[in-house]
Structure formats: C-alpha cells, structure tokens
C-alpha cells in the first residue's frame, strides 16, 4: 500500500504537525485547555487528515511511533507555553489515543516518562478515548484506563453518545470527563428531544462527578442553550478551529 510506505517516510522525515483547538469555559468564554490534533503534511498530496492515516497507522503498527511523537510534542509545547505565558497559558492539554496505543503495555510507562521529562503536573494531561472503543471490550480497557489514572492523569470519554454505552454502567468506567459528541449539539437547536438528551447527560455527569465538554459548537444559539443547561466547557468552530501553535497562542488569556 502506497500510504503505508509514505507513512514510514513521514515518521523518518517528521512530516507531522500538531494543531490545537481551544476548550473554553462556557460561562466566561475563557480558553481553559487545548486539544492536540495531528495533521500530516504530505510533500505531494498536501494536508492529510488523521481520519485517513490513523487507521493505516493502526493496522501497520506505525501508530506507536506517531502516537509517541504526538504525546511528546503536545507536552513539550504545553510546557513551553507555561514558561512563556504563565497564568495566561492553558491549564490542560488533551491528547487523543487510539486502540492499539491503549493496548500497548508500555503506554503507562511512556506517559509517565513524557510528563516527567517536561515537568507537567499529571492532572493537567488528559487522554481522550472514544466511547465506542471502551464499549468494544470493557473487560480489557477498564483496567488499562485505571492504570493510566493511577499516574494522576485524566481520562476523557470522547464522542460520548455515539458508542452505545449503557448509561447505567457509566459509573463503572474510570473517567474524569465526558466529551459530548457534536451530533447532539448540532441537533439540539432543531429537535427538542436533543435538548432533553443533553439535559439528561448533564444531570448524569453531575451525579457521577464528571466534567463535561460539549463538542462541535458552531453558533450562538447552541452556546446559549448549553449555558442555560449548565454545561461547563465547550469546543467548536464558534470559538476556534484547530490551528497551528503560533496561531492559537494569540488567544491565550483572552475571552473568546
Ligand atoms: O482533527 P480532525 O477532525 O481531523 O480529527 C479526526 C479524528 O482523528 C478525530 O477522531 C481525532 O480524535 C483523531 N485524532 C486527531 N489527532 C489524533 C492523534 O494525535 N492521535 C490519535 N490517535 N487520533 C487523533
Ligand atoms: O473525535 P474527536 O472529537 O477527537 O474529533 C475532533 C475533530 O472534530 C477534529 O478533527 C476537529 O477538526 C473537529 N471539529 C472541531 N470542532 C468542530 C466543529 O465545530 N464542527 C465540526 N464539524 N467539526 C469540528
Ligand atoms: Mn478528541
Ligand atoms: Na470527539
């Protein structure tokens, strides 16, 4: 496969870049955290989305090198921002992890090494894991997430609401944050039932003492609804698209 060969070269030549998207306090509009999102700048094809190359990286095992680079680069950049911007720097860095990364027995060790190297307080690093992945094999993934949380880092359930977890077993998952999938946010404006669903998710999260991030906020109406429902954090094009480090840092300390 062409992409596989190119991906090997990409690792050797470091053709990856991290983009960062703000996670914002919905009450104050303050930029509180960032999610790191990888991009591949292919020399001929241009920018390739992780949706297109992460699956290939997973299949071939190249994800371990790419994933480690992403984790290290996000933490390095985060530490640099803390140095430069002090109190205006974001308080949290979120990094996505995929299936094979979670199954790698060295992951806990790698994460501990990276945060120690960059002197990042563990509670400021979030790893995002999709709901559908956890649901695929709870017996395998729950102990892995527990191990990760023992380091003191936070675990987020990403794309929540699309992975068919039974709400009644959510309390058994070792989690800190629910990231509500953008399909709920998109629909809430048009379909009354979706606002009720959001309300139910927020009540549940509150009872389980989970923080909530609503994803995919694109307009003010959605923002106002989520504020009225008491949702603490949000993310989406309304605030900012994922952008390069040099661009995103212009938003630090601002209310967006
Ligand atoms: O940013 P974008 O919409 O293109 O991301 C597409 C998908 O790729 C998302 O599901 C996101 O979680 C995933 N993704 C983005 N960056 C990373 C990364 O660094 N590692 C892993 N494993 N997945 C990522
Ligand atoms: O699966 P995950 O939640 O990690 O994916 C994040 C992806 O969602 C990123 O690739 C990002 O580009 C995309 N994204 C972020 N905000 C918005 C938004 O407001 N609308 C849409 N359509 N996509 C978004
Ligand atoms: Mn994510
Ligand atoms: Na998501």
TrEMBL record:
It comes from Gimesia fumaroli. It comes from the Bacteria. This is Phytochrome-like protein cph2. Residues 1-256 form the EAL domain.
């Amino acid at each position: 496969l062409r992409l596989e060969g190119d991906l090997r070269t990409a690792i050797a030549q470091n053709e990856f870049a991290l983009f960062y998207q703000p996670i914002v306090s919905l009450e104050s509009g303050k930029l509180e955290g960032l999610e790191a999102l990888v991009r591949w700048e292919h020399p001929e094809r241009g920018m390739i989305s992780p949706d297109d190359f992460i699956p290939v990286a997973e299949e071939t095992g190249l994800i371990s090198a790419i994933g480690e680079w992403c984790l290290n680069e996000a933490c390095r950049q985060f530490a640099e921002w803390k140095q430069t911007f002090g109190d205006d720097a974001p308080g949290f860095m979120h990094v996505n992890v995929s299936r094979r990364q979670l199954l790698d027995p060295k992951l806990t060790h790698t994460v501990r090494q990276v945060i120690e190297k960059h002197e990042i307080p563990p509670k400021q690093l979030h790893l995002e894991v999709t709901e559908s992945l956890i649901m695929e094999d709870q017996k395998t993934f729950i102990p892995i997430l527990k191990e990760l949380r023992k380091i003191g880092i936070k675990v987020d359930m990403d794309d929540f609401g699309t992975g068919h977890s039974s709400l009644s077993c959510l309390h058994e998952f070792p989690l800190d944050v629910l990231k509500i999938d953008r399909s709920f946010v998109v629909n809430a404006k048009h379909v009354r039932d979706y606002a009720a669903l959001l309300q139910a998710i927020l009540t549940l999260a509150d009872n389980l003492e989970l923080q909530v991030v609503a994803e995919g906020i694109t307009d003010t109406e959605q923002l106002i609804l989520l504020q009225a429902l008491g949702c603490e954090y949000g993310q989406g094009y309304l605030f900012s698209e994922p952008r390069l480090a040099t661009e995103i840092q212009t938003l630090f300390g601002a209310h967006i």
